[in-house]
Amino acid sequence: QSSSLLGWLVLGLAVGSNLVQYAVTGNPRFGGMSGVVYGLLGYMWIRAKFDPSCGLRLHRQVVVTSLVWFFFCFTGWLGPVANGCHAGGLVIGMGWGWLASRRRSD
């Protein structure tokens, strides 16, 4: 994995996840990197699943704990949470990981 790929991945996840959050809420007042974190989780999880030789590994408990927390945030018990950003980042990262694994296998 090259550092330029990581840079583009982080930039793409930041823009994409924040656009999803804005589309969901219509409110421009939010910020942070949590969508990128969920996006990197999704990328690594799916990339490793479909391309085991890629060298990326996530312990199963990391994925489970992150997904439990992801859904817990939707309960509203934690106050305002950028759920659109989290969901957008996760889905974009998973898609990017799947595409990267397909590209490698071709």
Summarize the structure.
This protein is mostly helical and 106 residues long. The protein is built from four helices and no strands.
Please provide a written account of the structure.
With 106 residues, the chain is mainly alpha-helical. It has one domain: Rhomboid-like (Rhomboid-like fold), CATH 1.20.1540. The protein has four helices and no strands. The chain has helices at residues 3-25, 34-50, 60-73, 83-105. Helix 1 (3-25) packs across helix 2. It starts with a helix and ends with a helix. The model has no long low-confidence stretch (mean pLDDT 93).
- CATH level-two architecture: Up-down Bundle
In total, the number of strands is: 0
Count of domain modules: 1
Shape call: globular
Structural class: mainly alpha
